Amino acid sequence: KAGVTQTPRYLIKTRGQQVTLSCSPISGHRSVSWYQQTPGQGLQFLFEYFSETQRNKGNFPGRFSGRQFSNSRSEMNVSTLELGDSALYLCASSHQPGTGGDEQYFGPGTRLTVT
Amino acid sequence: LAKTTQPISMDSYEGQEVNITCSHNNIATNDYITWYQQFPSQGPRFIIQGYKTKVTNEVASLFIPADRKSSTLSLPRVSLSDTAVYYCLVGAGRDSSYKLIFGSGTRLLVRP
User: Fold this and answer.
1) Do A104 and B104 touch (CB under 8 A)?
2) CA-atom Rg of chain B in angstroms
3) Does the pLDDT value for residue B1 go beyond 60?
4) pLDDT digits 0-9 by tens, A90-105
């Protein structure tokens, strides 16, 4: 079956703009998590959605937001972009939320560059 | 403050066994410990997952002590293709403070 897909794969934006990233989970998976990966901070948890509800949120400012649709697809939005938002944004899907005995499958990520 | 700690890097030679330990003092009671492998420009890939004691699959073993405050990923007989970054992932905190926490990653270099 198809894996997790993320679009776009690469994106260049300027400071102050906003951006929307998309994630399509594996068919049948209802949980989607988002992570930010940077060389300095590593993999940091952004938020987790399950059945269209945000279950948990990491320590990121309110400029970072997300949502999940009824078909489990998810989007994340970053408003008023800053240079420090340049990162690889990873999406992962699983049947159940958290790490309660369920494997997360990661997408290839969206590389965002803010200039 | 929930935190996981791993060694920054490790070196090994082909055919050797490699053990990578992750400490996770604040792991949530019901959460599992998961290890991932990541190659450059790719998303992390699942290696193994466990809750307690020992778990083994076709590529690795995972050892978890009774207090679950740490875990050790064991890669038997590594090859050059095992050169990658390895991360542990746990859930920590409770209720509204629950978060998924990745370790900082261990960069494994396998030499011929």
Assistant:
1) no
2) 14
3) no
4) 999 998 877 666 788 9
> Helix, strand or coil for residue B80?
helix
Minimal C-alpha gap between B17 and chain A (Å): 25
pLDDT digits (tens, 9 = 90+) for A4-50: 999 999 999 999 999 999 999 999 999 999 999 998 888 999 999 99
Task: Among B34, B42, B98, select the one facing A56 at the smallest CB separation.
Answer: B98
Question: CB distance B44–A108 less than 8 Å?
Answer: no
pLDDT tens digits, one per residue of A59-95: 899 999 999 999 999 999 999 999 999 999 999 999 8
A45 contacts B105? CB cut-off 8 A? no
Q: Which residues of A54-75 are buried (b: 16+ CB within 10 A; e: fewer)?
A: eebbbebeeebbbebeeebbbb
